[in-house]
Amino acid sequence: MTEIDLLNKIKINPSEFSEFFKLYYKPIFGYILRRTGDFDYTADIAADTFLKAFRSINNFSYRGISVKVWLYRIATNEVNLFIRQKKRDSSIFERIDIAENDLFTSYLEDDKKELEAELQKHEQFLLVVRELKTLPVKYQEVISLKYFEGKENKEIVEILNINEGTLKSLLSRGLEKLRNKCNQF
Hints:
- By secondary structure, the chain is mainly alpha-helical.
- The chain has 10 helices and no strands.
- Residues about 85-95 have low confidence and may be disordered.
């Protein structure tokens, strides 16, 4: 099924959003986790990302960007909001009534165990993430999308709504700053 087909199904029947959630939850969760480095904050930010997507998906229309890029934009904005506020928002489970709360909680716990085990194995990765978080947000965004999420320049340009020259400059400067920070250890 294409993104357009899924989008049309959701617009007809909002319960089809669960398919959208299943398709994009893990990559979005992983992206947010690599940006924040904290599982609990990530769970809240991912929940807020999907809640915002759910609330506005009927207004989405293809204008040169895909649903996936749109979702990464929402996630990027939510992470940036978190970074600015540095406080924990209430989770989606406290704000809306979900009939299958146990199912979602179980799903999150499984992901938590799997992702925490992966993070524990990669101490050097954690050092890089910790140092990356000390860089200005503009560098964090491009480095995370390029190297942690494996996005192509074209996708990053769409997600962040910047031109390619700016992207290349931010990547170059950001990587140099990150190398200098990591070489101090």
